[in-house]
Amino acid sequence: MATYILLSRWTQQGAANVAQLPARIDAIRQTFRANGAEVKDAFVVTGQYDTVLILEAPDDETCARLCLAIGKAGNVRTETLRAFRENEWRRIVANLP
Question: What percent of the chain has pLDDT over 90?
C-alpha cells in the first residue's frame, strides 16, 4: 500500500464544530477501511495546519477519491502528499539513470 500525508486546515464550519472532531475522525477511519485503505495515525498540530493524517491506500485514485470526500463535508481544506518510505526512495534513487 502507498503512504500519504493529509494536511488540513479547519474551515469556519470545522472550527465551530471542533468538538465533533473525534466523531469525524472515527467516521473517516471507517470510510477508509470500507474502501480498502487505512488511517494509520491522526494528529492535531500547531502551525499553519490543524490536523495531519497518515494514510495508506492501494493506489493514488483511491486516496484521491477518499480525500475529496473528506473535503466535500466542508469541515476542512486539504492538501495531500504522496510519501515514500525509506525502502521505496532508496530503490528509486538506486535506479536513477
Answer: 100
For residue 19, give the amino acid letter: A
Tell the burial category of 83 from Cβ atoms under 10 Å away from its Cβ (0-12, 13-18, 19+).
middle
pTM above 0.85, yes or no: yes
Please give the radius of gyration of the chain, using alpha carbons only, rounded to the nearest integer.
Answer: 15
C-alpha cell at 50: 490543524
Q: How many CA atoms lie within 13 Å of 47's alpha carbon, on the beta-carbon side?
A: 8
Name the nearest CA neighbour of 67 among 91, 51, 47: 51
Q: Which domains, and CATH codes, for the chain?
A: 2-94 (3.30.70.920)
